[in-house]
Structures are given as structure tokens and as C-alpha cells.
Amino acid sequence: MNPAIVDKNTIAQVLRDISLLLQLQGENAFRSRAYDQGADRILGLTQDLGPLVAEGRLESLPGIGPALAEKITELVTTGRMRYFDELRAKFPPGLLELMRLPDLGPRKVGALWRELGVGSVDALEQACREQRVRQLKGFGEKSEAKILEGIALYRRARGERKLLGDALPVAEALLERVRASPGVVRASLGGSVRRRAETVADVDIIASAADPGPVLDALATAPGVAAVLGKGDSKCSVRLTEGDLQVDLRVLPDEDFATALHHFTGSKAHHIRLRGMGHERGLKISEWGVHRDDGSKVSVKDEAALYALLDMQYVPPELREDNGEVEAALASQLPTDLVTLEDVQGAVHAHTTWSDGRNSLEEMARAAKELGLKYLTITEHSEAAIYAGGLKVDDLQRQWEEIDRVNEAVPGVRLLKGIEVDILESGALDYDDRVLERLEVVIASVHVRHSMDEEQMTQRVLTALDNPFLHILGHPTGRLIQSREPYPLRMEAVLERAAERGVAVEINGKPARLDIKAEYVRKATRLGVRLVVSCDAHRREDLGNLAFAVATARRGWARRQDVLNTLPADRFLAALRARR
Ligand code: DGT
Ligand code: CA
Ligand code: ZN
């Protein structure tokens, strides 16, 4: 079994839940603490869990005894832990959720349950409204109000759409579990996750199998499932503990797989267009497949066949938004060489312990090499970025020496000497031109003073673009999805100037940034702006952000030749230097 099916986060969550349930049961603190410590140990591991489990080395880790090691091994190798399942079965299923409310731990939840029979968030809300909670020892009128506030907060957080970066890894792990379950012929993610939307409401999975039963069970019993919301003959919906994410799985006969996958991938707007085109050809396209006017069913073996039926090019999921892809596909003008993750040769934008990153230069180099990357641009913050440990000019020389050492020590991957230099309020860059000209990769970004008006901010960025030593404009709009609006900026003018000056524009792959967004990527490519996909890494694991930058590039119809870091290192550097 693929160890990724039960990742470290899920294991830690299961161990923490066991600790909570033991406390609820009134066990001594010593026993429950062992599980919390185990969870900490697992999360703190730098090595992969797979080999540790396979070689029976788990219990050699401090803090993990033989009994705990055995339970974790069972979870990793079978996807279940009987001890946890039995413990969980002793309580109403909603109790664990109650303990996730702000200010409610095992002691209070235990009292609410034993004294008032409260076993779910809804029941607790009702008990507070009926003023029954204040009658309990240790609770009062004030705590009722506070609990109600906490419930509202908790529900609001749950109602929010999730970042793709949080949902995708969880979705992929569950997809693997579905794939590995008995009788599965094909399986895929669907919905907004497959289209790589910036945020998603839930995860959709579509699978084919002659007998859906065991496949639906595989999801219902997956570790990390907080509640099974519904289970029928062909569909199962669950809510996960992690991020309160809902997952819908549909299992169909394989002959219906392609059309169902297409339907549940969406978007709805894209479907509506296709349905209209089907109609003109005497074909009825629906959730149930493609039917002729006489009611007979057209066999559709895969999604490509569906588009072929409509005399159009295949449309990749990331483009299915009805913003021109249908017309382009009919006219055979859809790009067939959209950039892929495999095309990307090197990662742009990485921080290390030299500024506000968590891993050393050598650790980052090794991690990049493991991912098959040929180069990584090291771009620490500059002097003005005091909050982020920005480098003084003197530091640069010493860092270059270390980069040279690492480049010798880790063959096969090359660290490029760069900087993420602050764009000051005036539009000047934070280092002197004489310093900038010695760097291989110069990214310039706005980090402070977001509150300028549109005209001031536009002038600030345009001035920066005029600097002859600038190569790349970093996270150009400064937005943080769901938490910070982009600063006001005339994007059209910025992209035009970037095209004019030959400055590349970053597609930042950090899931909360995705900056520039897909819509601007499309504008940029139309204007002939050169792009880079970046990971904005502050730790090893962030190198994976490249996938989100590539997804954004694809959603913006960017082709391989639009993205400079699809080039080998030497040609990439030459392209950066070829300013206009
Ligand atoms: P989300 O979940 O809000 O992030 O976005 P989606 O696109 O994943 O939406 P979801 O999960 O409600 O439905 C998945 C796909 O199923 C959707 O993209 C298209 C299809 N679908 C759902 N409801 C309808 C509908 O009423 N009409 C049509 N034509 N398609 C639908
Ligand atoms: Ca969805
Ligand atoms: Zn930055």
C-alpha cells in the first residue's frame, strides 16, 4: 500500500483524537499524553514514514514505544487502526467535533455529554439557547454566550471555500485509496479540484467499478473521516477532520465513466455550451451520458471522444470555464502545448535560513534535486525587509561563497545567485545598481506600503520595471486569497511596460498568493510578456508550490514557450539578461 494514503498529518490527527477520547473517558493524563507526544514526533519527522514502517524502525524513535509503533504500523499499512475504531465507537460520533470548538476540551465536553446528553454541535447550540448549560457546575450565563460565539465562528470558518493548496494533497491521497480498493477500473478527481480552481468548496471523486460497494466503503472508512454524511448505492459523502473538507465519491459502471467524469468536472458554464452544441447535432448530453434523439446511448470511451463527437479539440480541465475555450476548440485554435510541470527545468524564488526561510542552502539544493529540478534561484529578501531578515550587501558575498560550495557538493542541481529586492516607495530598488548587476537573478517585489492609491502604486511599479538590472517582477498584485485584497494597480499598464522592457512576470505558486492570477496570465501572454513559474519557497516542502504556479499558468492558457524556466539554466539566465 502506498504510504501516502495515510500521511503524517492524518496519523497525528488520529493520535490526537485518541488522546482526547482517553481524556474524555477519564484515563490518567500519563496515557493520553503518550499519544500527543507520538503525534508531535510523527509531525517532526524529517524522513519518510514508508521506510521507517517497512523496516520496523518506528519504535527506535524516542517517544514511540512498541505498542504505539504497532498501532501506527497498522494504520499506515492497512489504512485503519482497530484500537481507534473501538475507542471511537464508545462515544457519540459528534463528541470529537465538540472538542474542536474554541475553549471546549475533554473535561467540559465530558460534563456536557454526561450531564445533559449533548453529543453534537447542534445539540450544544440548542442546550445553550434553552439555558440548560448554565445549570452545570463550572458553567454560567457567560459561558453559554461564549460557546454560542464559538459555534458561530467555527461554522463560519467551515463555510469558507478552501485553498486549492490545502485541498489537493488530501484529495490526491483519497484518490489513491479509492484506486487501490477492490474492483476499481478507473478513478479521477473531478470538480473544481480537477480544474485547479484557486479555491474549492468540496472534493469530487469519480470512479468506475462493477460493484460500487467496496469502493464506497473505502472512502467511508478512510482515516481522517470525521463523519459519513450520506451513503447510497453509487455515492458516498464524507466530511474530513482536516479542514472540514467534504468529499463526494461517485462510482459507476465503466461504460459511463467518461461522461460522468466530464459532467462532474464542470464547470457548469462549460457544460451548458457543450449541451447546446450537442443539441444542434441531435445529441443529448447529460449527467447520464450522451443519447441520440431516439433514446439510444452513444458509447463514449473517454473525454477526448466526447469532444470529438462535437467536432472540437479536446479541452483540458483547467480551461473549462466558458471564457473562450469553446470557440477556440471549435476553430482548432486552442494551444496544444500548454506548459506542464514536467516542462519546468528549474524553480524560481526560494528563501533559505539566510533570510526568512527554514532550510539551509544545501537542504534546498538537495530537495530540488530530488524533485528532478536542474536549478533553483536563491532569492533572499533585501536590506529594507528587516521583518524578513533581509540581507545586507556584505552578506551577499558570503552567501555566494556558500552557494559555490553547495554547488560543488550537490552535483546535478545548480543554485543560482539571486535576490528578491524590495521595490521602495519611490519605485527605486533597495540595492544599488552596482550590486544588482552582479546578481544572476533579480526579482523585485512590493512588500510594504500597500496603501498607496492606484496612480501612485502604478507609477511605483512602472519605475521599478525601468530598472535595467531587474529580471522578474515578483507577486505583482500582492493579494492573499481570502485575507488581503490586491493593492490597486493598473495591471494593463504594468503588463504593457513589462512586455516593452522585457521584464518577466512571476506566477507565484504559493497557494494563498497565486499571483498573477490566471486572467492576467492570459492578458500577459497576449501582450507577449515572458513569464516564470515560481514556488516562493520558505522551506523544502514549498518547492511543491511549483505545481500550483503551473496550474495557474495553464488556466491562463500559457504555453511552454511563454515560461522562461522551462529552459535549461544557461539559456534561462541568458533569457533573463536579454532585456529590452
Ligand atoms: P465547487 O465545488 O464550488 O468548488 O465547484 P465545482 O465545479 O466542483 O461544483 P460542484 O461540486 O457543485 O459540482 C461539480 C460539477 O458537477 C460541476 O462543476 C458541474 C456539475 N454540476 C453540478 N451541478 C450542476 C448543474 O446543476 N448543472 C450542470 N450542468 N452541471 C452541474
Ligand atoms: Ca466540487
Ligand atoms: Zn515576496
**Helix-strand makeup class:** alpha/beta
Give me the Rg, rounded. 27 Å
Placed side by side, the strands forming the largest sheet appear as: 11-12-13-14-15-16-17
Query: Could you say which small molecules are bound to this protein?
Result: 2'-deoxyguanosine-5'-triphosphate, calcium ion, zinc ion
CATH architecture label of the largest domain: Alpha-Beta Barrel
Q: What attributes does this structure have?
A:
4 domains; binds calcium ion; binds 2'-deoxyguanosine-5'-triphosphate; 7-stranded parallel beta barrel; 5-stranded mixed beta sheet; 580 residues; DNA polymerase, domain 1; binds zinc ion; globular; Beta Polymerase, domain 3; Beta Polymerase, domain 2; alpha/beta
How are the SSEs ordered, and which strands pair?
Blueprint: H1 8-24, H2 29-44, H3 49-54, H4 66-78, H5 82-89, H6 95-98, H7 106-116, H8 121-129, H9 141-159, E1 162-163, H10 164-179, E2 184-190, H11 191-194, E3 199-200, E4 203-209, H12 212-220, E5 225-231, E6 235-240, E7 246-252, H13 257-265, H14 268-280, E8 283-286, E9 289-292, E10 297-298, H15 303-309, H16 325-330, E11 346-350, H17 361-370, E12 375-381, H18 393-409, E13 414-422, H19 433-436, E14 441-445, H20 454-465, E15 472-473, H21 491-501, E16 504-508, H22 518-527, E17 531-537, H23 546-555, H24 569-577
Parallel strand pairs: 4-7, 11-12, 11-17, 12-13, 13-14, 14-15, 15-16, 16-17
Antiparallel strand pairs: 1-3, 2-4, 5-6, 6-7, 8-9, 9-10
Helix pairs in contact: 1-2, 1-7, 8-9, 10-12, 20-21, 21-22, 22-23
The structure holds 2'-deoxyguanosine-5'-triphosphate, calcium ion (CA) and zinc ion (ZN).
